[in-house]
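Hi U.,

Before I forget, here's the chain from the pilot set. I'm dumping it here mostly so it's searchable later in email.
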Amino acid sequence: MFIPPTRRAFAAAGISLGFGLAGVRPAFATVTDPDAMSIGAANAPLQLEEYASAACSHCAHFHATNWAQLKRDYIDTGRLRLTLKEILTEPAAIAFAMFQLARCNTTSGAEYFRRLGILFERQHTILTSGTVGAAVAILVSTGGEWGLTEAQVMASFNDRAGQERITRSINAANALGINSTPTFVLNGERIGAEFHTTEGMTRILNAALER
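Structure:
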C-alpha cells in the first residue's frame, strides 16, 4: 500500500500538512484523469500510464535508461501518449514535495516531465541530504533555476489541493492492486517488469503498434 505525506514528515522543515489524508476511495482514474499529467498526442494509438514515485530509485533508473528513447521514438512521433499517476513511496513527504515542485506554476505536461526528469537525476542527492530541511533547501534552489521564488515553492508544498490530489491517486492505485513502482499500464493492460529495460520496452511497444 502506498502512503500519503504526513504532517510529521514535513514538520522539521517548517511545512504544515494540516489535514487527514485517509479514507478517500474514488473510482478508477482513466487516461483522461485530470489529476494526472500527460505528454504526447491525445489520439495516439498507444496510451501508456505510469504509476511512479519521485522518490523511487527504480523510477529514476527507468527514466535514466529509457526516457530519451521513449520520448524520441514514440511520444514525439505521435505514436504514444504517456500519463503519469503520482504515487508516494518513502520518504513520502519528500516524494510529495518533488511532485509539487514539478507542477509549481505550470500546467504544461511537457514542462512537468522536463522538471521531473531533472528531479529524478538529482534524486540521490535530495534523498541523501541528511534532513528534511536540507532536502527542501535543494528543492527550493532547484525551483530557483526554473524561475520560481522560494515563496512559490513553499506554497506548493502546503497546497491542500495537491495533498488531496495525491490522496486520490494513491487510493486509485491501491484499489487496482498496484503495489510497486514503476508500474505500467498500456492501453488498459498492465505490463510486466520486462518493460523496464530498453529492449523490453521497445519490443512491447512495437508489438502493440503492429496489432
